[in-house]
Amino acid sequence: KQLVLELIPAPEPSFDNFVVGANQEARNALLDVVLQRPPAAVLYLWGVSGSGKSHSLYAVASSLKQSIVTATSLAAHRNDALSDAQMETPIIVVDDVERLDDAAQVALFNAINQRAQQDGSCVVVAGHAAPRDLPLRPELASRLGSGLSFQLHPLTDSEKAAALNAHATSRGFSLREEVTSYLLRHSRRDMTSLIAMLDALDQYSLETGREITLPLLKQISQPSLV
Questions:
Q1: Taking the CA of residue 27 as centre, how many other CA atoms within 13 Å lie in the half-sphere pointing to its CB?
Q2: Residue 191: exposed, middle, or buried by beta-carbon count in 10 A (0-12, 13-18, 19+)?
Q3: Alpha carbons 75 and 99: distance in angstroms, whole number
Q4: Which of 32-36, 117-121, 190-194 has the lowest mean pLDDT?
Q5: pTM score
Q6: Residue 225: pLDDT above 50?
Q7: What confidence category does residue 2 fall into, taking pLDDT thresholds of 50, 70 and 90?
Q8: SS (H, E, C) 191-208
Q9: CB 14 within 8 A of CB 27
């Protein structure tokens, strides 16, 4: 029997479902980019897995109705560095910069230099470490460090709990503390997955007419016996 969670897609990353925590300054800078008044030619985000780097980039790209450059997407297009279409956009969004090959690194370096001369243009980049610690061409690492750099910090459990309660309130129900605690202990800990699980729980509650409780959560989060 397929779990309810598997039937409900995770919400698309956006600024509306980006829980800020200690990252308000970075969020403000990203919103300025979307408004095409970037605070610098390069905006670099870094942090551990789950800190919100990719979510932030996808929120920017979605707002601008464009795609994100990744090592995977480049490989899918025969790795021709950055396409002409991407190079012509005022904003370029690049994730997992440490995975770019040499040709893509050169193209990104050139794109940064180009946008430094253009008002309203910016390159938004994310990586797993500070620019000086990235395994990149020295000139690219230097360029990434020349703009604004923000270390993103994962949410604390109390911040995640507050975010889950706020999301539940927005959907018209209250969340018991034991349900929140179970979600934080037994579910994937990134906010996108937690919110998706909460939405699944709410939908299943509506479909079955049962109150949102810990037993109901356990029922949809554990494999059913057939």
A1: 15
A2: buried
A3: 11
A4: 190-194
A5: 0.77
A6: no
A7: very low
A8: HHHHHHHHHHHHHHHHHH
A9: no
